[in-house]
Amino acid sequence: MSNLISGNTGKWEIVIGLEVHAQVSSKAKLFSGASATFGGDPNSQVSFVDAGFPGMLPVINQYCVEQAVKTGFGLNAQINLASVFDRKNYFYADLPNGYQISQYKQPIVGEGFLLIDLPDGTTKRVGIERLHLEQDAGKSMHDQHPSKSYIDLNRAGVALMEIVSRPDLRSAEEATLYVKKLRSILRYIGSCDGNMEEGSLRCDANVSVRKPGRELGTRCEIKNVNSVRFLYAAIEYEARRQIEIIEDGGKIHQETRLFDSVKGETRSMRSKEDAHDYRYFPDPDLLPLELDAAWVKSLGESLPELPDAKKARFISEYGLTPYDADVLVMEQERAAFYETVAKGRDGKLAANWVITELLGRLNKDGKDLADSPVSAENLGGLIARISDKTISNTLAKTVFGHMWDEGKTADAVIEEKGMKQVTDTGAIEKLVEEAIAANPAVIAEFKAGKERALGFIVGQVMKKSAGKANPGMVNEILVKKLKSA
Amino acid sequence: MTSLNHLTISEALVGLKAKKFSAVELTEAHLKAMAQTKSLNAFITETPEIARQQAAASDARYAKGEAGMLDGIPLAIKDLYCTKDVLTTASSHILDGFKPKYESTVTQKLWDAGGVMLGKVALDEFAMGSSTTTNYYGHVINPWSPHNGKDFTSRLVPGGSSGGSSAVIAARAAMGATGTDTGGSIRQPASFTGISGIKPTYGRCSRWGIIAFASSLDQAGPMARSVRDCALMLQTMAGHDPKDSTSVDMPVPDWVKALSPKVKGKRIGIPKEYRVDGTPAEILALWDKAASWLKAAGAEVVDVSLPHTKYAVPAYYVIAPAEASSNLARYDGVKFGLRVDNGGSLADMYKATRGAGFGKEVRRRILVGTYVLSAGYYDAYYTKALKVRAKIAEDFRKVFESVDALLTPTAPSTAFVIGANEDDPVKMYLNDIFTIPASLAGLPCMSIPGGLGSDGLPLGLHIIGKPFDEQSVLDVALALEEAAAFSAVPNFMAA
Question: Whose CA is closest to B138, among B40, B219, B45?
Fold first, then answer.
């Protein structure tokens, strides 16, 4: 139980459940034909349906239903062939109908789970309670005018998937791993772009604390956290706050809180007493959503290989460590890139190169994989030259540097720079002999028992060969010569 | 020669085709009739320019032999239908100045068939009522009200909520009108004004562009002066609309072509639960008479039972307000219509706008609806009401295993005086006691005039059919219409 945090009265456990709002990647909104793309001038993407005009009626967007079902499969969840859209009633200026169409008692997706890989190498199963479809509200802007609020309805009616986890998470770190994994699955499926900055992935966290083994504490809900980093900070802050209150003899009151990312703290938004009575009831404008079992099945079959399956395959097929496999499957493009590099080559070597060299360099230069100056094919070419001993792993790094700068293939660089590894025994023997002759003092040390001196000679040989000598062979020949001498 | 505005739609279509008169002449006759009957206060908005333009276009089509099904027929539109660029009020203050940029599917179909729009007629505010007394623009007077040649000596309600529609048709100021029926809003006003009106099966007509009262019950339908006229209008109005998820995707039969008064061999059920205590004897007598007409025409009349009937009105007054409380949340002063801004907070603006914009009955139903959906009360009211609704539908389903249609009275009284029942909402609600059960079950049903009460006011007969069997409803209605030979006219009408 390494997740426990210490207070004045001993160890505390944090219990977290997350509600993630994932915007469906759809050109049109959930119940109107209006565009759902990000950006656009305020109120330029609003239909009469979105604006709640009299006599307007919602019509479900089948594409959004499809994305919810696919995501359900991705979460190993039960797909409900019958689900119901309800109205969640409350008044607000950016909610044009005075109600939000959502799903309450009968969501489209039921129980499922998601696996997260913990830093200690173990895998944790996090329960998913449900996924339901709902429409987004508009946006209120209070900073445009000294006394008026402005409303932008571009977002009103955009399709969201609300994905609710069980309270299975036990630390801020687990929560961030959960969000990252969920985002990865959504991106694999293509149902949500996972862009937290643009608000297409938003997170509410239910946080409570308890002494290990005791029953659940009173929770507070932190609303609308819009980055993984903020989620971590918000949970940490909130847990500490709750522990302090309880340890000081106080009580936690159930409430909704907001995370202030500038101050790094949560603060009360409304208490349970002020909570809305949403008066949910089935939306009489929409018939129950009934899905055809065969259609649902075909959607399940159309799913791409998802991160967990891919990871397992990478481990078995390429002999990767779980950690490396994890890094590679995090993003679909990355996994695909890796597979192109590794195809027909040394998988482990390919993984090292993709993760350490390529991703490292991309990260350093602030580039995305899609903009990589070294293509997967070319990196594969480099791996091949290492494997067939044309160049050493060390020299390969120099080659990679040229490839990065000049966009050339490994072979072209090797050829141009004459970097082909020397594997000619005669040539290496000659270099070794020269090195022995030039460093009698070092040889004497070696003979006196200083094994490390050998490394120096090898270094000298490599230097003389401009790095092209095969280091294994140098070592072998040197040892042989010294022993026979 | 009869004034053109006294013709039925069917008669007018014959005359137009035969070029006995033009669509423009027919429209002018109605515009004149509207002016003569202005004291009914039925029109909220008159649209003579649109009417004249449409009529001229209609004549052009007749000249080319391209006339549509209702070409040149002047119609009134209940002001619950959104009409493009024409003030649409739902008879509510809260929609002040609202001119939609879209046309409801049903009215568009009427215009596509050549219909001519005379204007928008009043209703009970947001269709909530049985008297059209909750109209923000004043009471509408039933043309059957006693009149001394100069003025009304007593003012009767035209029924409701489609009271503007019923009044102008009875007064010969429109040949037909659209209505909407949630719990009886087409049938009861038809009964009160001696005209016909049909509410088709829920899902037959698109609700798109019709301002919602209670979405699971609201249904468009025609009102006119004959069964055939209703069939003609409904034929035009019905049909699947992809913009309304509750509209049913099935073909619309040719009701007009198949329309026949032959009821020989049909089984007509008389539900015993509709023999409610306190129903006037003359209404029960007319009901018996109508049964005997059908028997004489060869139908088999049988007694049936719909055991859950008495729970229909209470269930309706939970479900309809519940939906209304949510449907009317959008009238908040933010986007369109009335805004009363006293410089306070957003909540203050909501309160001021909705307090001023909604009338008493609408506010009452919003409160009732909000209450029955609230946490802690939901199951006791809303869930229970849905269960009752299912039981009522099941009652009908069972009965329709053995009968083709049901016959009942339309309303428990003739038209009452404006102001009556106002003190007692429940008494007012009981006006719909015979019409609500079929609404809850979504069934097609129709009211036609069967005769006059001892007060000289019309009484309606009510026919209920199986889901999507509008044909039987129309056929039985036609048989009754022929037998009843109702020819009485209101005390006050256009020349």
Answer: B40
B272 flagged as catalytic: no
A88-129 per-position pLDDT tens digit: 999 999 999 999 999 999 999 999 999 999 988 889 999 999
Instruction: Find the CATH number of the domain harbouring B345.
Output: 3.90.1300.10
The contacts of residue B63 (CB under 8 Å, 6+ apart) are none
Of A91, A149, A277, Cβ closest to residue B332: A91
> Is there a catalytic annotation at residue B185?
yes
Question: Which among B10, B92, B166, B185 is annotated as catalytic?
Answer: B185
Chain A: residue whose CA lies nearest to B379: A281
B322 and A CB contact within 8 Å: yes
CA distances from A444 to A438, A447, A480 (A): 12, 5, 16
What single string gives the DSSP state of each residue in A174-223? Answer: HHHHHHHHHHHHHHHHTS----TTTTSEEEEEEEEEE-TTSPP---EEEE
Specify if B151 maps to a domain.
yes
User: Nearest CA to B452 among B411, B404, B426, B488?
Assistant: B488
One DSSP character per residue, A4-44 reads -EEETTEEEEEEEEEEEEEE---SB-SSSSSB--S--STTS
Query: Which residue among the candidates B131, B161, B206, B247 is catalytic per the annotation?
Result: B161
pLDDT band at A485 (very low <50, low <70, confident <90, very high): low
Q: Is residue B7 part of a domain?
A: no
Q: Which amino acid is at A265?
A: E
Q: Minimal Cα distance from B325: which residue of A?
A: A89
Eight-class DSSP state of B141: P
The ipTM (two decimal places) reads 0.96
Classify residue B4: in a domain, yes or no: no
Q: Are A156 and A96 in contact (CB under 8 A)?
A: yes
Reference A350, options A322, A387, A323, A295; nearest CA is A387
Fold for the domain defined by A425-484: Arc Repressor Mutant, subunit A (1.10.10)
Helix axes A471-484, A453-464, angle to 10 degrees: 130
Which of B326, B328, B358, B372 would best serve as a mutation to test chain A binding (most A beta carbons within 10 A)? B326
Contacts of residue B322 in chain A, CB cutoff 8 Å?
281
Does the pLDDT of residue A1 top 60, yes or no?
no
A150 secondary structure, DSSP code = E
Residue A198 to chain B, least CA–CA distance (Å)? 26
Residues A55, B210: C-beta atoms closer than 8 Å: yes
Q: Where are the domains of chain A?
A: 5-299, 305-417, 425-484
A56 at B interface, C-beta within 8 A:
yes
Q: Is residue B120 part of a domain?
A: yes
Q: Tell which residue, B268, B201, B264, has the closest CA to residue B402.
A: B268
DSSP string, B439-452: HHHT--EEEEEEEE
* Stated pTM of the model: 0.91
Q: What pairs with residue A225 in β-bridges?
A: A203
